[in-house]
Design goal:
This protein is of the alpha+beta class and 236 residues long. The protein has a single domain, classed as BirA Bifunctional Protein, domain 2, CATH 3.30.930. It is built from six helices and 13 strands. Strands 7-10-11-12-6-2-1-13 form an eight-stranded mixed beta sheet, sandwiched between helices. A three-stranded mixed beta sheet has the order 4-3-5. Strand 11 and strand 12 form a beta hairpin. Helix 1 crosses helix 5 and helix 3 packs across helix 4. 40% of the residues are buried.
């Protein structure tokens, strides 16, 4: 990990919300960001999908990305980045409030910190990875074709990528690992992610799938006003 130990003294809540409906997954991540104002804890959320889905970056054009994949539903994220298929990946998100050290970092630095964390976690379970030193894009608009600087690589191929959004509420990073390393249970990787947090001096508070009332209500509102509306999904 970074020698500055970005987790030292920080309080982290760990959520595991299990398999979820695709629109709900994206709405919940955005709700965690929106409800972060005034909070003191960062949130690491692990989740999965109750069926195939694909997500694409907020600024991408729906018409363009819809021609790049046959996977449906196709959902606009609130973060940037490119098209990501969620058919067999490991997904997670990190949400930090405005008072967290990561919030003050530039996008390149927070991206690197995240993947240094993943690199350390995979190292704990015997999977040797490296960070991409330079960008090597192959497929325009498609996250897992080629790599960006500081993406996580396994055997020279992109293993993990992420997309970010920073606003007055905090910083949200949505990440995907694909394809997961063979023979590594997802539970072992998740435990390693938490272990790195603790090793770096963070105060870890596991909360299972427990969601605060305001987060649930915000998620429902975002479902109705955004993620279930064709106007939002196809707005560009």
């Amino acid at each position: 990990m970074n020698t500055d130990e970005p987790f030292a003294g920080e309080r982290w809540r760990v959520l595991d919300t299990g398999p979820g409906e695709p629109m709900w997954n994206m709405a919940l991540d955005e709700a965690l960001l929106e409800q972060g104002t005034g909070k003191t804890s960062a949130v690491l959320r692990f989740y999965a999908w109750d069926g195939p889905a694909a997500t694409f970056g907020y600024l991408q054009r729906h018409k363009v990305v819809s021609e790049l994949t046959a996977v449906r539903p196709l959902i606009r994220r609130c973060t940037g980045g490119g098209l990501v298929s969620h058919e067999a990946d490991w997904t997670y998100s990190v949400t930090v409030p405005p008072g967290h050290p990561w919030y003050r970092l530039k996008a390149v630095a927070s991206y690197r910190c995240l993947h240094e964390w993943l690199q350390a976690a995979f190292g704990k379970i015997g999977v040797a990875t490296e960070l991409a030193s330079v960008a090597d894009p192959v497929g325009p608009g498609q996250c897992f074709l080629g790599a960006e600087e500081a993406d996580l690589l396994l055997g020279g191929r992109k293993l993990a990528g992420a997309a970010q959004r920073r606003n007055r509420h905090g910083l949200l990073i949505q990440g995907s690992v694909q394809p997961p390393p063979r023979g590594v249970p997802v539970e072992e990787w998740r435990a390693a992610m938490i272990s790195v947090l603790r090793a770096q001096g963070a105060v870890v508070v596991p909360v299972g799938s427990q969601l605060e009332f305001d987060v649930v209500e915000c998620t429902r509102r975002l479902m109705q006003t955004r993620y279930l509306r064709v106007e939002y999904l196809q707005k560009r």
